[in-house]
Amino acid sequence: MVLTRGLMGLLAAAFIGSVAHAVASDDVPLDEYLRALHGIMPAARDGAEAYMSAFERKCGRTMRTVELRAAVSEGTGDPILMAMIRASHYKDSEILRSLATAVSCAGGGH
């Protein structure tokens, strides 16, 4: 199935809202949160894992669950994370590598 950019945006918005409601506690283990992402949209977990890996390489530490949750759910989501989810859906490793350089350490990934 080929998804247009607009449709991916709608899916991403639905996914953000679903994940925000699916996991209500700040003390959710990261693996559980990633499973929730995968259940909503498999590319979401792949994009989140790529985002977290880039964060760890760039920032020298592992991203905490609360930081990933903020990147997913604050506003319309961190644009870099959303783009990484889209690139994961399209299996575009070149764009994923490019986006990884734009991940920020400030504010838990924003």
Protein architecture, described:
The structure is a single chain. The protein is mostly helical and about 110 residues long. Helix content is about 70%, strand content about 0%. The chain has 6 helices and no strands. The chain has helices spanning about 5-20, 30-40, 40-60, 65-75, 80-90, 95-100. Helix 1 (about 5-20) packs across helix 2, helix 2 packs across helix 3 (about 40-60) and helix 3 crosses helix 5. The termini are far apart. Keywords: Signal.
Concise structural overview:
Keywords: Signal. The chain is an all-alpha fold. The protein has 6 helices and no strands.
Radius of gyration: 13 Å
Largest beta sheet, briefly?
none
Order of helices and strands: HHHHHH
What is the count of DSSP helices, taking H or I runs of 4+ residues? 6
Topology, number of strands: 0
Chain-averaged pLDDT: 81
Q: Return residue spans where pLDDT drops below 50 for at least 5 consecutive residues.
A: none
| Helix/strand class | mainly alpha
Signal peptide: 1-22
Keywords: Signal
